[in-house]
Specification:
Radius of gyration: 28 Å
CATH superfamily of one domain: SH3 Domains
Strand order of the largest sheet: 6-5-4-1-7
Largest sheet: 5 strands, antiparallel
Number of helices: 2
Order of helices and strands: HEEEEEEEHEEEEEEE
CATH class of one domain: Mainly Beta
Structural class: mainly beta
Distance between the termini: 85 Å
Number of strands: 14
Length: 202
């Protein structure tokens, strides 16, 4: 009798073990959260929806600023899986918000006056539109009128204080871009300033 009971227990244990290993290793866990969020790029542009959780994945769609979307799972690595209508995709969590944003208002930069070219420039507004970039190295070059020097200034304005003038061919590290005409650059000395795109050779 005891032998039959022991045999039955052994068979049951074997079946449970087989069932455990039968579970696919690639099975996804259920979404940890489902909530509505809104596209919220700081520059007012549309939010990129990608095919995977990383910038290396293809952009498969764009969600206009302020438009609602469904977050199915926050992946905890700066990315979230979302549903936009019935289409799944992935977005950066830093570019969404759970509060519906108001209309985007682009920062304005007042024009400088002829009497004092820099006095009325709103540098805060300029800095607000700065786009942080993955640092990369460039060569700073002279222009036809800069006497073999590349000018580094205190602010992204040709009339602002000149911090340094480096010899054409000096390398610098770009750390941010402001619009189409200016970069924030770090020099080999460690000093940081702004350089016009005319002086930058990638």
């Amino acid at each position: 009798m005891n032998k039959r009971i022991l045999s039955l227990v052994a068979v049951m244990a074997l079946m449970m073990t087989m069932f455990a290993f039968a579970t696919p290793a690639f099975a996804r866990s259920a979404p940890t959260s489902n909530y509505y969020a809104y596209s919220f790029c700081s520059n007012g542009k549309a939010l990129n929806v990608r095919s995977g959780p990383g910038k290396e994945y293809d952009v498969i769609g764009k969600i206009p600023y302020g438009e609602q979307l469904m977050v199915s799972e926050n992946l905890g690595n700066g990315w979230a899986e979302i549903y936009w209508g019935s289409v799944p995709g992935f977005v950066m969590t830093s570019l969404i918000t759970d509060q519906q944003p108001g209309p985007y208002v682009a920062p304005t930069v007042p024009a400088a006056t002829s009497d004092n070219p820099t006095a009325d420039v709103n540098y805060n507004a300029l800095f607000q539109i700065a786009k942080q970039v993955e640092p990369y190295t460039v060569t700073l070059v002279a222009t036809a009128n800069s006497k073999n020097l590349a000018n580094i200034r205190w602010a992204p304005d040709k009339k602002s204080t000149l911090l340094d003038s480096v010899v054409s061919g000096t390398e610098g590290t770009i750390i941010a871009q402001l619009g189409k005409n200016w970069y924030q650059v770090q020099l080999p000395s460690g000093a940081v300033g702004f350089v016009n795109t005319a002086y930058v050779q990638k």
